[in-house]
Amino acid sequence: MKLKKALVIFVLVAIISVCFAGxxxxxxxxxxxxxxPKTELSLGESxxxxxxxxxxxxxxxxxxxxxxxxxxxxxxxPKEGAKFLWIYVRAENVGELAKKTPGxxxxxxxxxxxxxxxxxxxxxxxxxxxxxxxxxxxxIYPNIVEEGWALFEVPxxxxxxxxxxxxxxxxxxxxxxxxx
Length: 180
Description:
Blueprint: H1 2-20, E1 40-42, E2 46-49, E3 52-62, E4 65-69, E5 72-76, E6 82-93, E7 99-100, E8 107-111, E9 114-116, H2 119-122, E10 126-128, E11 139-140, E12 145-155, E13 164-168, E14 173-177
Parallel strand pairs: 1-14
Antiparallel strand pairs: 2-3, 3-6, 4-5, 4-10, 6-12, 7-11, 8-9, 8-13, 13-14
């Protein structure tokens, strides 16, 4: 009799459990939000695209620089009404495989709806003295950094707050503002 009574209680508990199993709701989970990538970064901010962390670190302005051209050192001046704008960039492989860094010509200045290309891109025989130039489109392995200066010749009266640096990374184009 005790066994029969225990069996009846067990069956009743099982039936009640099955009946109410769908009645207890889990609290709704928060919706998954995919952050929208920033369209414009500030100096010093990094973006990671396809295993490369890229940063526009800072900039300097000058009216001359020293260079060596076919073994002869010389001082180079900008064209009349222009000055030099030096942009310091940094690419680091933060992935697990070798990756190519953006090329020198992938780093450009956008100003007043015009694209200004780096000067060194056009003067490959000229070596800049006292500055390490950015050497892009180079395969680098994990934890390796390629960094240096990109040189541009810009209008002397350029409004730096209106200038943007555009970098073409493998699958994304990113902009940095030079405004402080």
